[in-house]
Amino acid sequence: MPDLIDTHCHLDDDRFDVDRAEMIARARSSGVRQIVIPATTAERWSKVKQITQQFPDVYAAYGLHPMFMLEHQQSHLNELDSWLDQQKVVAVGECGLDFFQGNQDQQNQLEFYRAQLDIAQNHRLPVIIHARKSLDLILREIRRHTALRGVIHSFSGSLQQAQQLFDLGFKLGIAATISYERANKLRQIVCDIDIDALVIESDAPDQPGQQHRGERNEPAYIWQHLSVMAELRGVEKDTLASKLLTNSQQLFGLKSF
Fold it and tell me: Which of 127, 142, 173, 191 makes an SS bond possible with 120, Cβ 3.0 to 4.6 Å?
C-alpha cells in the first residue's frame, strides 16, 4: 500500500482524547504516514503543539478560524506572529471566511483573514484556508498576496474558481464529501482539474464519507475517498496516491519518509 498525507485533520479535537494514540496507529497502519493539524483558536495552540511533540510525523499549523470569531481577540494576531517565530510549524491556518450563517460579521472576519495572509506571507509559510459561501472574496484577497501559496480546505467552489486558485499557486483540499453521489460538481472538478492541483484530507473528526456516515471520522478512512477520486480520474489508486503525496510534501515542505 502506498503512503499518503492527511493534509487537514483536527487531531486536537476533544473527541480524540479517549483514543488518540490508537487512532494515529490505525492511520499509520493504513498508510497515512504524515498528518497536518490546523489549529482553530489561540486557546488550542498549546494542545496542538503538545500533540506534535508526542507523535512523530504529525505537524502543526496555527491560525484563527472564522467560525470562532467570538473567541478571537485582536491581540491574538500579534500573538500568532510571535508564536510562529518560536514553534515548529508547516503552515498558517486554519483561517479564512465563513458566511454560511450570513455575512453580518463580514468586516471582522475579513480583518482577521487579511492579517493572517500577511503573517503567512511574512513568514514564508503556506496558508490553510477555510472558505464557505465566500470564495470570491477569498480569491480577491489571495490576488493581493501574490507571494502566497496554500490550500483551500474542503474545496466546494466552481471549476472556474478551482482553476483560478491553481493558477495562483493554490491546491484544492478534497475531503470525503466526494464519496457522496450527490457531489456532482466536485466530482467533475476532480476529473477536469490538473492533478497537480489536488491534495487529500480527512477533516477528522468531521466530514465522514458515505461509508462512515454518522460516525466520528478518522484519517485512516481517507483511502475510501481516494478510491472514488481514482475511479473518477480513471487511474490506479497507487498512481493517484503517489501524486497526492508529492503534491502535499511540496506544499508543506514535508520530508520524504
Answer: 127
Please give the Cα distance from 58 to 89 (Å, whole number).
10
User: Averaged in consecutive runs of 10 residues, what is the pLDDT profile of the chain (257 residues)?
Assistant: 92 97 96 97 98 96 97 97 94 96 86 98 98 96 95 97 97 97 95 97 96 94 96 96 96 84
Q: Among all chains, which residue has been given the C-alpha cell 472564522?
A: 66
Scored b (16 or more CB within 10 A) or e, 99-125 reads beeeeebeeebbebbebbbbbbbebeb
Distance CA 27, CA 200 (A): 14
Extract the C-alpha cell encoding 234. 480513471
In b/e form, how buried is each residue of 71-80, taking b as 16+ CB within 10 angstroms? ebeeebbeeb
Backbone angles phi, psi at 178, to 5 degrees: -70, -15
Q: Nearest CA to 178 among 159, 156, 162, 204?
A: 156
